[in-house]
Amino acid sequence: MLTVVWSLAAFVVTLGILVTFHEFGHFWVARRCGVKVLTFSVGFGKPLWQRQAADGTVYQIGAIPLGGYVRMLDGRVDEVPEHQRHLSFNAKSVPQRAAIIAAGPLANFILAIVVLWVMFLLGVQSVKPIIGDVREQSIASQVSIPVPSEIIAVDGRRTEDWQQVNLAFASALGQQQVTLTVQDERLRERDYVLDIADWRLSDQQTPTFVDLGLQPYQQRVSLVLSYVADESPAAQADLRVGDKIVEFDGTPVVDWSQTRQLIMSSAGQQVILSVERNGQLLALPVTIGSRELEQESIGFLGVEPTVAPYPEEYRFVQQYGFIDGLVKGTERTWELIVLSVKMLGKLVTGVVSVSNLSGPVAIAEGAGTSASYGLVYFLGFLALISVNLGVINLVPLPVLDGGHLVFLAVEGVRGKPVSERVQEVFYRIGGALIFALMAIAISNDILRLSQ
């Protein structure tokens, strides 16, 4: 329950920041163009807080934190006195109106640059993209990639961490092949060409490199016990720190993952654990404990294995100075914009399935998880969502900023506005499409939660 509350709180904060900056973009440029702003609202519905400024603009926070709006004086919907007609939105030139509309998405891109700049100033704890294993029967297993080795480039694009590897593979989706450049332990570089002609993204929201079969390096976990809980089934069977599990009820065990699975599937059963202690082999009878998890009995022993420390040479901090951080933040924002546009195109062409769409539940989970990791990780998530919001708003659907820009472009060419009747038809079509996509995204969220 606490996790749900935390995720909801992080979601509200994330959406509040994004909407505030988006609407402030419209607001700021509208004021610069001499348009009278009637209302600046973060959220919809009944106002929880409201204040009217000296210039007549009403600032408010709505009860439903799922968006916002800037209401400007407009002769098409308001009774505008003659002396205020020059302050109405529709009285402004096409370039001015286009600037006001485009300012919202632009503000989201600027926000992404700023938060990534701050993130790089603070420093991001990262790990190098070291391949720890290659899954059998995967696309990556078709070539002999050495393990361990570091991914230093994808299609010639340098990669410093796993996030960049993930984005690079996502960008390559739909291609016939992708070139992976790796560096082995002897610092020798080699290119490997992966055949991705038939590759499609998984519906489980797994990273692209995992889909392809590349497993990040993980700390080695041995079968030597590093902890035995007091009064646990293990303690009652006289298991001790330093014991090495060799067999589980006659079944030889080779790693902790196998051992853990055997323990979990033996709830309430009495088994014989063969352990190595001080050079001697002991056979200890153990009654596996039982816990209820999601209406299923799960076995537990009350021990922890010995985990080797993560190699320090695989860790690094992405931290830059004032100017370099700004440059890096701008570069990363541009990369995200390009990738978002490409992914939208692949969605339209069918390369990416609609089953990969994520809705508000997935965003809330991402917000909660990134916030729990710390400020710098939350800033990275905020930048990603801000870029996505900016790009999506530029899609040429009438209910979005991009649709309004299309109507203004037509008006600029024709010399007169598109008729209200035509606009109304397109608004309804656009609204239906947006509603359908949102319904699919929310359905995908629900299906993922139920799995």
TrEMBL record:
Gene Ontology biological-process entries: proteolysis
GO molecular function: metal ion binding; metalloendopeptidase activity
Record's subcellular location: Membrane
InterPro entries in alphabetical order: PDZ (IPR001478), PDZ_6 (IPR041489), PDZ_sf (IPR036034), Pept_M50_Zn (IPR004387), Peptidase_M50 (IPR008915)
Keyword terms of this UniProt record: Hydrolase, Membrane, Metal-binding, Metalloprotease, Protease, Transmembrane, Transmembrane helix, Zinc
Known cofactor(s): Zn(2+)
Membrane topology recorded in Swiss-Prot or TrEMBL: Multi-pass membrane protein
Chain segments annotated as transmembrane: 98-122, 375-395, 425-447
Enzyme Commission number(s) from the entry: 3.4.24.-
Record's protein name: Zinc metalloprotease
Any single Pfam family the record assigns to this protein: PDZ_6
